[in-house]
Amino acid sequence: MTAPLIDPFARPISYLRVSVTDRCDFRCVYCMAENMTFLPKKELLTLEELDRMCSTFVRLGVEKLRITGGEPLVRKGIMTFFEGMKRHLDSGALKELTLTTNGSQLRRFARDLVDCGVRRVNVSLDTLDATKFADITRWGRLVQVLDGIDAAQEAGLRVKINAVALKGFNEDELFTLQAWCAERDMDMTWIEVMPMGDLGNEDRLDQYWALNDLRARLAERFTLVDLAERTGGPARYVRIEETGQKIGFITPLTHNFCESCNRVRLTCTGELYMCLGQEDMADLRAPLRASADDAVLEAAIRAAIARKPKGHDFDYSRQSVAGQVSRHMSHTGG
Ligand code: SAM
Ligand code: SF4
User: Fold this and answer.
1) Over 90: is that where the pLDDT of 132 sits?
2) Whose CA is nearest to atom 11 of ligand 1?
């Protein structure tokens, strides 16, 4: 028996988020600069390497894989990777294979994803207004994403909508977005904007809309019932009694969720970030490429997990962004 991955604070690591590309067909203002320089292709893990990496994590006890990016569905040949991961679902080692996507390619891939064993997808959507959508994503088209969501639901995927809460941008859509999701039987999660990447032009502090305010506004109109559900991540959930809908709040900045953290993140170049809010990472690409023997990779993974920190240092409370990390979200995968 292979010993499972347990970090120094006795937290079992059962959840791996994998960024499969740093590229994207959108340029969301809070995520990327308009003229991003992307990594040379040779820096990226190949599809075979991604398979070997994820399979090793699964062997070490990872039960949930979330594929992200960049936009995971713009990575060439990505369905080959999903097809490969299906064997771990079939064997029962992997409990869930899922992805976070901007939805633009779902019309093309929804059915294939279902065939690969994917049951749920998170689609990021901050507004239902076509003009605002074009503004926030710079390159995106709302109709294409809405059509992608239709395709996903037609294919039988359960869709959850993720929206970044942005002051002065989607505050006025709180109820329309929620009603639209309820109509389509979709849960929804609000994400607090995080101080990632280059603050330069877009000042994240200006855009910061605290989720306790958002929640209070929802509570003026609906009965919110706290759910005990914990995912090991920064999300907390309520049920809206009137609609039965589940609403999540991801508040990495205002709540401390680190004590139950069960996850690590792999970038598309094979760097393992043990904590979203810290700079420390372990290069797993070198050990992966150094030897065909997975024991070398396994030892590197165990050494990395032994360095997982207790928590992160994000803090907006002093009206300055302490603990800011310089990576873009598209690099580590949100
Ligand atoms: N392209 C896919 C998508 O948009 O869903 C997957 C990658 S994207 C980096 C993952 C999530 O991170 C998205 O829901 C996005 O809205 C969120 N995100 C990006 N930058 C963020 C930031 N600065 N603060 C909070 N969430 C952010
Ligand atoms: Fe692309 Fe997702 Fe980042 Fe938007 S949030 S630019 S869709 S990676």
Assistant:
1) yes
2) 334
